[in-house]
Design brief:
The protein is mostly helical. Among the domains are: 163-207, Arc Repressor Mutant, subunit A (Orthogonal Bundle), CATH 1.10.10; 216-236 and 250-324, Helicase, Ruva Protein, domain 3 (Orthogonal Bundle), CATH 1.10.8.270; 331-482, Ypt/Rab-GAP domain of gyp1p, domain 3 (Cyclin A, domain 1, Orthogonal Bundle). It is built from 24 helices and two strands. A hairpin with a 2-residue loop joins strand 1 and strand 2 (463-464). The longest helix has 54 residues, at 123-176. Mean pLDDT is 80; it is low at 1-26, 49-68, 91-103, 240-249 and 251-256. Pfam families: RabGAP-TBC (PF00566).
Length: 488
C-alpha cells in the first residue's frame, strides 16, 4: 500500500521549517538592532554636542572640525555682542604689534556664553564679567608698555655707555698714554680716571700707575718660575732634596707656596670657571703665585693674593702681571697686611676710625655701642683689594682710582660702603652688621656707590690721611718705647 503523497519531501519540509523559524527570528531581531543603532546615533550626537560645548567653554572648536577659532575672531564676536563695532588698527598698532593684547583660552571664558545645559548668566553678572575682561586687557597693555619702555631705556643706556667707553678709549690711546708723564696728574685725566678706565687700556694704565720700583724684568720672572717648578718637582718626589738644597727657604714658606696656592686657586672667582683646574688661566695664576713666593720667601704666599693676581691676569700678560703684582704688594699698606704686622695693622685701623667718626658720626657711635671693630670687615677688603667682596666690574673701577690715589682710596672706599648701607646698619645688631659687611650683596648700584664715596672727606682737623697715619705711627713707636704719646 502506497503512502499518501506529500506536497514536499521530508528534507524540504525541514528546510521550510528552518526557514520559517529564521524568518521569525529575523522579524524580532532586526527591529531591535535598528532601534539600538538609532539609540547609539542619538547618544553619539548628544556626546558630540556636549563636546562642542566643552570645547566652546575654553574658546576652542572640536578637533573633528579641523579649524581652531582665532583669538581675533573671539575679540570681534565679543565686540559685536557688546554693541561696539571693531575698528581698523591704527598705524601705531601696526608698529607696536607686540603690545596688542590677544585673549587666551582663559579670557575666552568671559567672551563665550554658558553652555545650553547650564542656566544663562544674569545681566549684571555678564556686565561684571565684561568689565573685568576690559580691565584685564587694559592692565595687560599697561604692563607690556611699561616693560617695553624699560627695555628701551636699558638699550639706550647701554648704547650711551658703549659710546662713552669708545670715546674715552680714543682719548686715552691718542692723548694721554703717549704723553703719560705730563698728563697723568692733570685735572682732565683725573676726571676720566674717576669715571672708569676703558677695559681696552686698563692694563696699560695700571702698569704705568703702579710702576716698577723693584726693577723686575721678564728674565727675573722666568728665573723665579723655574725655581718654583723645581721645588714643586722636589716636593712631588718626597722633598728630601728640597730640605737639603736651601735652608734659607723655611718649611712654612714651602707649604704656603704649594699646598695653599693650589687650594686657593680653586676658590678664586669660582663663578668664572677660568682659574680652576683645566681652566684657561689656571697655569698662569699658579705660575705667578709660585714665582712670587720664590721671589719673596720672607713673605711667602698669603691667603687673598690669588684674587689680586687673578684681576691682574685678566688685564695684563703673564710677565707684566707678575711685575705689577710684585710692585703692588710692595706698597706699605699691602706689605703690612700680607706680612701680618699686627702693630702697623692696628695703626691703619685707628686711622680709619678717625675718618669714620669724622664722616659718619652716628654710625660710628652705633658700631662702638655694639663693639664692632674695623678688623672684622676691613681685613678681607684690604687683603683682596675688594676683588672678592664686590662684583668684578665694580672692583675694577675701585682699582682704577686706587692706582691713582693709593692706599687712602681703599679706606675711603670702605667708608663709602658704610655710607651706602648706613640706614640699614643703624637698625642692626652686632651679628647682622657683621654678616652684611663680610658678605656684601652681589649687585651694588655702581653710580650710587661712587656717589657715596665722593661724599667722604679724607680730612680730619685739617689733616689728611697721610698726616693722620704718620702721627699715629709716631704715637705707636713712642708707646712701645714706654713714653706717653703726646696729645694731638
Amino acid at each position: 500500500m502506497k503512502s499518501p503523497s506529500r506536497p514536499f519531501p521530508v528534507g524540504t519540509s525541514l528546510l521550510r521549517s528552518n526557514h520559517c523559524s529564521e524568518s521569525w527570528r529575523r522579524g524580532l531581531v532586526l527591529p531591535f538592532l535598528k532601534w539600538r543603532n538609532l539609540l547609539a546615533r542619538k547618544q553619539n550626537a548628544r556626546l558630540d554636542k556636549q563636546n562642542d560645548l566643552g570645547w566652546k567653554l575654553f574658546g576652542k572648536l572640536p578637533l573633528r572640525e579641523n579649524a581652531q577659532k582665532d583669538s581675533k575672531k573671539i575679540q570681534k564676536e565679543y565686540e559685536d555682542k557688546a554693541g561696539r563695532p571693531s575698528k581698523p588698527p591704527s598705524p601705531k598698532q601696526n608698529v607696536r604689534k607686540n603690545l596688542d593684547f590677544e585673549p587666551l583660552s582663559t579670557t575666552a571664558l568671559i567672551l563665550e556664553d554658558r553652555p545650553a545645559n547650564l542656566p544663562a548668566k544674569p545681566a549684571d553678572e555678564a556686565q561684571k564679567h565684561r568689565q573685568q575682561y576690559e580691565e584685564m586687557v587694559v592692565q595687560a597693555k599697561k604692563r607690556e608698555l611699561k616693560e617695553a619702555q624699560r627695555r628701551k631705556r636699558q638699550l639706550e643706556e647701554r648704547c650711551r655707555l658703549e659710546e662713552s667707553i669708545g670715546n674715552a678709549a680714543l682719548t686715552w690711546n691718542n692723548e694721554i698714554l703717549p704723553n703719560w708723564e705730563t698728563m697723568w696728574c692733570s685735572r682732565k685725566v683725573r676726571d676720566l680716571w674717576w669715571q672708569g678706565i676703558p677695559p681696552s687700556v686698563r692694563g696699560k694704565v695700571w702698569s704705568l700707575a703702579i710702576g716698577n720700583e723693584l726693577n723686575i724684568t721678564h728674565e727675573l720672572f722666568d728665573i723665579c718660575l723655574a725655581r718654583a717648578k723645581e721645588r714643586w718637582r722636589s716636593l712631588s718626589t718626597g722633598g728630601s732634596e728640597l730640605e737639603n738644597e736651601d735652608a734659607s727657604f723655611p718649611a712654612a714658606d714651602r707649604e704656603a707656596s704649594l699646598e695653599l696656592i693650589k687650594l686657593d686657586i680653586s676658590r678664586t672667582f669660582p663663578n668664572l670657571c677660568i682659574f680652576q683646574q683645566g681652566g684657561p688661566y689656571h697655569d698662569m695664576l699658579h705660575s705667578i703665585l709660585g714665582a712670587y713666593t720664590c721671589y719673596r720667601p720672607d713673605v711667602g704666599y698669603v691667603q687673598g693674593m690669588s684674587f689680586i693676581a687673578a684681576v691682574l691676569i685678566l688685564n695684563l700678560d703673564t710677565e707684566d702681571a707678575f711685575i705689577a703684582f710684585s710692585n703692588l704688594l710692595n706698597k706699605p699698606c699691602q706689605m703690612a697686611f700680607f706680612r701680618v704686622d699686627h702693630g702697623l695693622m692696628l695703626t691703619y685701623f685707628a686711622a680709619f676710625e678717625v675718618f669714620f667718626e669724622e664722616n659718619l658720626p652716628k654710625l660710628f657711635a652705633h658700631f662702638k655701642k655694639n663693639n664692632l671693630t674695623p678688623d672684622i670687615y676691613l681685613i678681607d677688603w684690604i687683603f683682596t683689594l675688594y676683588s672678592k667682596s664686590l662684583p668684578l666690574d665694580l672692583a675694577c673701577r675701585i682699582w682704577d682710582v686706587f692706582c691713582r690715589d693709593g692706599e687712602e682710596f681703599l679706606f675711603r672706599t670702605a667708608l663709602g660702603v658704610l655710607k651706602l648701607f648706613e640706614d640699614i646698619l643703624t637698625k642692626m645688631d652686632f651679628i647682622h652688621m657683621a654678616q652684611l659687611l663680610t658678605r656684601l650683596p652681589d649687585h651694588l648700584p655702581a653710580e650710587e656707590f661712587f656717589a657715596c664715596i665722593a661724599t667722604i672727606q679724607m680730612q680730619s682737623r685739617n689733616k689728611k690721611w697721610a698726616q693722620v697715619l704718620a702721627a699715629l705711627q709716631k704715637d705707636s713707636r713712642e708707646t712701645e718705647k714706654g713714653s706717653p704719646p703726646p696729645r694731638h
